[in-house]
Amino acid sequence: MAELATGPTRHGLRCASCVKREADSQTAGRHVLAVADDERRATSNESAGLYVHIPVCRSKCRYCGFYSVPAGGVDAGRLVDGLLRELERYDDGIEFCTAYIGGGSPTALPAEELIRLVRRVRERCPQAQEFTVECNPGQVDARLLGGLKTAGVNRLSFGAQSFNARELELLGRAHSVGQIAAAVAMARRSGFENVGLDLIFAIPGSTLADWQAGLEAALALNIEHVSAYSLSFEAGTVFEAWRGTGWLAAVDEELDRAMYEEAIDRLERAGLRQYEISNFARPGCECRHNLGYWANRPYVGIGPAAASYLTNDAVRASGRRLTNDADIGRYLAAVESGRTAPAETNLVSPDDAACETAVLNLRRREGIDLAEFHRRTGRDAMRIFAEPIGRYRQMGLIEVADRAVRLSGQALPIADTILCDFSALE
Ligand code: SF4
Question: Which superfamily does 16-292 belong to?
Fold first, then answer.
């Protein structure tokens, strides 16, 4: 259940887990090598986030460009065994402060396999304050949700995407509008106090009134968190093909922007504070796992196509980004024979680390905390980014206050353009 688009959209609204996927694109086309065990283990003393990727879905949504394969064609028990084998490789030295099982569709796995995975992950991360599982609203029942809760999950993220039946049908989602409310109610009855919804706006044919109705429907469920992303047309998707033939047209940019601004206004008025370009939460319910990505803290990704970011001690934000093989067969063959999944890796230099930290931090509404930035990168952000900060400040797109640099509200719809200017040092 991909929370977000894989690439920048017109508003730069990329998802939380997108940051993880950025690692994939950063390494794409570079030298491929097997990662040595000691390299896998090497990371700074910082606690890390753990991401487990389940690359299976019961059916393919028409807009989705993520790697996933039909769940029916995968031996779920073997996949979970493989994931656990890979997790064992990290038994030394890394403490996980958050855990997140995403996909794909974790709930496309048989319930007993998903719960077995969750149990073992929880055993490995007893101290994790937040443990999230992404759920498809059409693939949960009381037994599954109760099992997840008992096994140690304390946050659920439902891929609702839309509360409009026509839009769900167009998107190719495998659930109904009614199943979204039913799933949230079931989650509450199972004891979950932290529940989020992913929503997509700017769906072809959608009007501002449709989007407003969707926001109201989401708010009526009294959830703690909303991720709202503008639909993007990804290469290789049905939507992209349909757009190519002229059968489907993107929502025009003005409407797209109006929908984004509507989300900010309506969700904030309902008490869901915007804490990142595309993410809104009740105070204290911000997704800690994704905050780790935006702080550029280390994370370990388990599973096919999963990416990891392992940092050094000396300059904390520098280190290595690793990407597992996306092919399930090759991935399983590797981990079952005790090898690392063939991976791409690239070094993150101190300069790269400073730029990546700035770009990720600027996605947060709090922006770059200058003291935190200096601690992580050893650099003075005001000095190394003096040019873009000065230029955008003059335009009213960047604010500098309280020892922080942040995007202004006016800058949010064009965030990607601005962030590009922080992606390299002069
Ligand atoms: S559920 Fe749909 S959007 Fe999510 S990963 Fe699977 S195909 Fe993509």
Answer: tm_1862 like domain (3.80.30.20)
